[in-house]
Give the backbone structure.
Amino acid sequence: MDTLRTLADHSIRRILAGIALGIALVMAALASRPLLALQSGALLTAATWLGLWGAALQVPRQDLRRASLWRQLSVLAGEGAQRLRGSRGRQQLAAILAERLMWHADRTALAAAALGSLALACSGYRLLLQE
């Protein structure tokens, strides 16, 4: 089970790293307008959270034999992957993947809230300076 969790984490983190790089590049492109950069980062991170949450809800209905996690498991576990070929094994894999997706979604929601709070604080500070 720990191997499944580790593989699921690696698979999810690889995807999230690409998304985080895209968000960072958008924020860097908007660096001349810091408030807009923070707002954009918060919105894009919230969209990522929604995507993770939606993916976690879709996992039980998907055929995971085509997923990258299944291929990684087949390569690393070899004969051990044979145990997961039954419906019970697929249900276990789906449950672990959904649980890890929700765990990462929770962390992504915290990052979105932090960016949104920082944008709100900067906006409030900007209003105080104008008066």
